[in-house]
Amino acid sequence: PMENFIPFRLHPPAWPPDAKTVLMIGADGNNEALFEITPATGAVRKLALPQGRPTYGAYLAEPGRLLVVSVRGAGRLGLTLYQRSGEQLQPLATLDDVALARFDPASRRVVFFRNASWGLWQAGLSLDGPQLLDDLHADPGGSLPRIVPNAGFYLQSRRLVTSDRGNWIVAAGDGCNVRWVAVDAPAGSRSGPCLDPRGGELTGVSYDPASGWLYYSYSTG
Fold it and tell me: Of 202, 138, 157, nearest to 58 (Cα)?
């Protein structure tokens, strides 16, 4: 628990590589705001965004650069790249129809999910050249079932793991509750080992690249 901070649990937190701070969406009166928290000290600082109502924030590898997904009116979600200087956030680029975005250290690109289009997308660090990275079918580019059947962007994004060792969707099915499934992998090499055969519905994952530990939660009710 952090004093003077009420998290919105539907929005996942985002950590930088050094894990000294974390970006989270929390309550700001009756609205939502983006906060940066320093867990070691308990310090909580609200980041003043020049536009939009934030739903997710993430760090880039470049110091002072942030990715922020926000509601831009009429329920539309979009991504903004900000340059941070002291207390000021300067918008550098925007990308429409982005529900959640993360920095991919393996490719040094931005990977993201869209609300209106299935699959995992990618763009450059300046949000340039967006293109579909993986359609998230069991056979890439084929007709076999989707890795996460009937899931919208919210459920897809909660199963994504990005790291400098590669990227995965943590999927379930075929008697396995937690299974590595490689992103952007050729046919026949996508599915990995089963990590947990117990029954239940996977609700979220978090990967610590420093230790190699995967943390996950699931419902058995």
Answer: 157
- Residue 12 gets the label, from left (phi > 0), alpha (psi -120 to 50) or beta, of beta
Q: Is the pTM of this model over 0.70?
A: yes
Q: Do 97 and 80 contact (CB within 8 A), yes or no? A: no
CA–CA distance, 12 with 7 (Å, rounded to integer): 10
**Of 99, 89, 77, 218, nearest in space to 157 by CA:** 99
67 burial type by CB count under 10 A (0-12 exposed, 13-18 middle, 19+ buried): buried
Tally of residues, the chain: 221
Distance CA 53, CA 69 (A): 8
Contact 173, 161 (CB under 8 A): no
Task: Give the pLDDT score at 177.
Answer: 79
pLDDT at 145: 76
Looking at residue 150, what is its pLDDT? 67
User: Closest Cα to residue 170, out of 213, 117, 206, 132?
Assistant: 206
| Strand pairing class (166-173; 176-182) | antiparallel
Give the DSSP H/E element, type plus range, for residue 153: helix 153-157
Main-chain dihedrals φ then ψ at residue 75, nearest 5 degrees: 75, 5
